[in-house]
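Ticket #4471: structure output looks truncated?

Reporter: J.K.
Steps to reproduce: submitted the chain below (617 residues) through the standard prediction queue, then opened the result file.
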Amino acid sequence: MGNFGRTHLALTLGILGFCGEAGLPAQPAANPVKVDGKVLRNAGSVVNDALPGSWLSYGRDQGETRYSTLKQINDSNAKRLGLEWSYAVGAGGGNQEGTPLMWNNTLYGITTWSVVYALDARTGRELWRWDPEVNQAAVRPRICCGIVNRGIALYNGMIIAAINDGRLQALGALTGKPLWEARVAFPQDLYTLTMAPRIAGGKVIIGASGGDKATRGFFAAFDASTGRQAWKFYTVPGNPELPPENDAMKAALKTWGGDFWTKGGGGAVWDGFAYDPEAGLVYVGTGNAEPWVQKFRGAQNVDNLYTCSILAVDLTSGRLKWYFQTTPNDNWDYDSVQQLMLLDLNVKGKTRKVITQASKNGFFWVLDRLTGEFISAAPYVKTTWALGLDAKGRPMVNPAAYYDTDPITLFPTGGGAHNWSPMSYSPTTGYVYIPVFLQPYTYEAQKEFRPGSTGYARSGRDPKRIDSPAIGPPTAEGMRGALQAWDPVNQKLAWRIDGGGGIGGGAVATAGNLVFQVINDGRFRAVTADKGEILYEIQTGRTGMAPPITYEADGKQYVTFQGGLGRPAATVGPNDDNIENPPMMFAFALDGKAALPKPAPVPNRPQPPVAPETEPR
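Returned output as attached by the reporter:
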């Protein structure tokens, strides 16, 4: 038959729901709606959405708005929320960052070590589980910035998962059996896969993490039916002695200098993505320049394209259509990989098709998504690294923000005013709900570059605090993290409430005038979308939380999310997976009566602070 024939036979069997062995669960629904490109394209539409109660992709719709039209749970009854069921995700520990998907009354999730599982969305009963059996001992020391996995993709009866060790796998959604496997990158080259794959026009788009190691950033497209690579786009140029891969790389070479390529260059693609099917464009955000400090990259005062940028690439050809760089000549780890959100906004009386981002650097960007034209931007938190923007949207860097010789402290933190923690949008209020971190961070350069490092150092010297001039909304006394409603048209803060942060948890907006928020310290709450009033809040007993979703099964609305940090017992080593406090999947609904799992006693161990270079990416 040949490999090609076997692949397609397996795919056909997976879609039809035939089981290769006895004991597998029956199909949850008799005639599930096939999730093809048309269904994904209309997800989130108030008119054409075939599955309004489902959650079919990472951002719910391909514009990544994380908005749900469900309103059974609303601002009049959210106080009745309670736990409906919980599920022990299993060994793995660590921060849970995966966004689950829901289709056909089945909830699909993924663990930190890329174990994929399927649950009955109504009860939490496990239907199947697939372990890709990552060689953890070999892969762990190669990972850049945390053992995490942000999610999976759903398409034509398949669950598509990015595996930490560089593999891309398609599993039968009904059976959990593998259908195809592709190789995206190798851990031996210091790459890791942590982002959720996305579907765009029958292709799977995936990028590789590793930007704080000596890696060259890239993302690639694979045929969703076969797993064959369609194209690959590097985000920074390679060795200038070799022919550049395309015109984009040829242009980018002019913005680098010295022996930059020997240190990788950076520009990793580990989170932000969106797709506009009408334009045929896929959008990705790129990571920081590597090493962090410009003097170690081989040339100073050059832009280092295409790091810290938003890229628009033609889906068919993989060619760059336009780019916008949010932090030229990055020195502060100000990745631009944060969530990309496609909106249609009324700007000065005209409807504009825009792409938006709340970047790590503290600015909220609004660009024309067809041309890349700068429309507007403003600092959404206190910001001191930049003095403002010029007419084309280029940041005007505060001269005091450079730290080549002396340590400084400035706003926002290197971990990001907003990092990977997902934001959401409500078409009813017109607000974007952003989990933010409001604190500053200390930067200091090594005296001499240490190969394999970011060029960042901590000597213990007292830094100079750059507190002014400051732009953006002032920070309330004592407030470290928050959830804030941002008006993207007028570029101003609507409201802000304490609790949240740029890393961990996230937000979902609904038609019930609610924002469901998960906070990294273990809290889950329901907040009014218009005013920011907290209607419901509960501590789950976990930390290191994943983003929430909301879905409907058998006429009942649920809110679900993974959490959190499974902690080892006192006798267990830090790399052991025997977890007393297993990570959990929680599902909340109106009048839920289930008891929260009790966390086991946690050993009293001092925990080292997390530096930005070790943040999960």
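Triage note (M.O.): checked the attachment and the full token line is present. The mean pLDDT is 90.
Status: closed, working as intended.
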